[in-house]
Design goal:
The protein has about 250 residues and is mainly alpha-helical. Helices cover about 70% and strands about 0% of the residues. Helix 1 packs parallel to helix 4. The chain is globular and about 65 Å long. Bound molecules: zinc ion.
């Protein structure tokens, strides 16, 4: 029962995140004001704002002008619903898992925004960092030393890379994401997180270069790789690290 509940809450939060992503940084209408079609400017009626369902019923087009609606709407909603269910499944009904859901929500905003505009909105990066720190303190196996070492590894290694690349490979926003997941994951977890981010980034980079004719020099947002790696490490990190240590000892 809770699975359905968290999925629906995730869908609704996702649809709110879509509003934030589309309207940021136009503060005046950021939260207030009805949603309008971005092509014909007609106000969208409430029954066309139901997460995912409305998109499917409308065939992905505006009811008024029949222009295509952005795929971002259903993708963000499903991602948010899916992550909420995953965190509930793995961490139960606890303050820790609720905070992880807040981490997921901020991650989705940063992920989408960075892909679209190669920029990480600072306010969401700070919110991610704050939610991650609170979540880390609520974690069942919290240890202050591991928290600090994790932050040092996650934020420090990325900070060095940003420094020596003069912000060409990644930017200051990525350091905040590294810090956030680092604090949350502890030392081993954050090493796994960084390794995963670079592996996923390299694989996606090669695929983009071969399939889409991107050049080696073309800019690629890095935060999506950090975020995917961070979420994998939160959910399955302990298992992966234990499995790896077992082999290392043998
Ligand atoms: Zn329209």
């Amino acid at each position: 029962m809770y699975f359905v509940l968290f999925f629906v809450i995730g869908l609704l939060v996702g649809s709110f995140l879509n509003v934030l992503i589309f309207r940021f940084p136009n503060y005046p209408g950021l939260i207030s004001g009805r949603s309008k079609c971005r092509h014909c400017q007609k106000t969208i009626p409430w029954f066309d704002l139901i997460p995912v369902l409305s998109f499917l019923i409308l065939g992905g087009r505006c009811r008024n002008c029949r222009q295509k609606l952005s795929l971002q709407y259903p993708l963000v909603e499903i991602a948010c619903g899916g992550l909420f269910v995953l965190f509930y499944y793995y961490f139960g009904l606890s303050a820790f898992s609720i905070l992880l859901m807040a981490v997921a929500a901020m991650s989705i905003v940063i992920f989408t925004f960075d892909i679209k505009s190669l920029e990480i909105p600072e306010v969401f990066a700070w919110l991610l960092l704050i939610f991650a720190i609170v979540a880390a303190f609520l974690a069942p196996n919290f240890s202050l030393a591991n928290f600090l070492l994790g932050g040092l590894a996650g934020g420090g290694i990325l900070g060095i890379l940003v420094g020596i690349s003069d912000e060409r490979w990644m930017g200051a926003g990525d350091i905040k994401i590294g810090l956030a997941f680092g604090f949350l994951l502890g030392l081993y977890g954050s090493l796994l997180f960084l390794m995963l981010a670079f592996v996923i980034g390299a694989v996606v980079g090669v695929i983009l270069i071969t399939c889409k004719n991107k050049k080696m020099s073309s800019q690629l947002a890095f935060s999506p790789f950090l975020i995917i790696a961070g979420i994998i490490a939160i959910i399955w990190g302990e298992r992966i690290v234990n499995w790896y240590l077992k082999f290392a000892i043998m």
